[in-house]
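Journal club prep — side note

Before the paper discussion, L.F. wants everyone to see what a predicted structure for a comparable chain looks like in C-alpha cell form. Sequence:
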Amino acid sequence: MTSPSLAGQRVDQYPESRRGVMFGVTAYGMWGLFPLYWALLSSAGALETLAHRMIWSLVVVVGVLFATRRVASFRAVLRDRRRFGLLACAAVLISLNWGGYIWGVTHGHVVETALGYFIGPLVSVLLGVFGLGERLRRAQWAAVALGAVAIVVLVIGYGQVPWIALLLAFSFSTYGLVKKLAGVGAVESMAVETGVTLLPAVAYVVFLEASGSGTFTSLGAGHTLLLVGGGIVTTVPLLAFAAAAVRIPLATIGLLQYMTPSLQFVFGLVVFHEHMPPQRWLGFAIVWLALVILTFDATRRRAPAAEPLPQ
C-alpha cells in the first residue's frame, strides 16, 4: 500500500511535469515559428536584423537579470577570466549562427536551415568525441555514418554543398560545447554574449542610420517594433527552455527539440513553397533515420543531451 506521503509527492510531481512539457513545447514551438518572424524583416537585411537582435536581446536580458536577482552571479562571471573568455567565443559562434539563420530565412533557404538543426545533434556527437574524449556506442557511430551519407546525397540534390545547413549545424554544436565547458546559467550567459557583441552591433546600426541606408526609422512604426521585438522573441523561448529543463527529464527534452526543425521544414514547403526534388527528400529521409537511431539509443540509456536552439 502506498503511503500518504509518497502519494502526495507523486501528485505534486505531475503538475510540475505537465508545466515542464508546456514550457518545452512553448520554447521549441516559438523557435519553430522563427522563419515567419524573420521573413517579415527581409527588407532590413540579415546584418541589420542581426545587429538589432543583439542590441534588444541585451536590453531584455538585463531586465531579466534584475527581475530574477541574478546580477551578482552575472558579475561573478565577468570576474572569472576563463568563463568570460569561453563566453566571448560563444558570442562569436552565436553571431555566426544567428546571422546565417536570418540570411537563410530571408533568402529562400528555410528548408536548408531546418536541415542544419536536424544535423546538429549528429555534429554534437562528433564534437563529444574530439572535444571531450567521449567514446561512441555502435548506434551512435551508425547514426553519424548515416549523417555523412545524407550530406553526400544532399550535395548531389542541391548541386552544391549545403553551406547554410553546415554553418548552422557546426556553429550551434560548437556553441553548445563551449557553453558546456563554461558552465554558466542561461540568463547570465546570454547577458555576457550579447554584451560582448553590443559595441559592434551599435556601431553598425549607427553607421547605417548615418549613411541613410538603415531601416530602423524609415519603414514605419511596425518595422521598428519588429526590430525591437527581436529581443523579446529571442529571450522568451530561452527562459521557457530553462524552466522546462528543471521540470522534465532530458529524454523528453531530447524528443521535443525536433519540433523546431520539423516546423521549419513544413513552413519551408507549405508557406515559402521551396522546391524539394527527390534527391533532397532522400537526403532528409536518411538524416531522419539517423536521428531515430540516435534518439532511440539515447532514450534507452537515459543519457540524451539537448541544448536550446540559438536561432
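L.F.'s comment for the group: The CA atoms of residues 24 and 244 lie 5 Å apart. Keep this in mind when we get to the figures.
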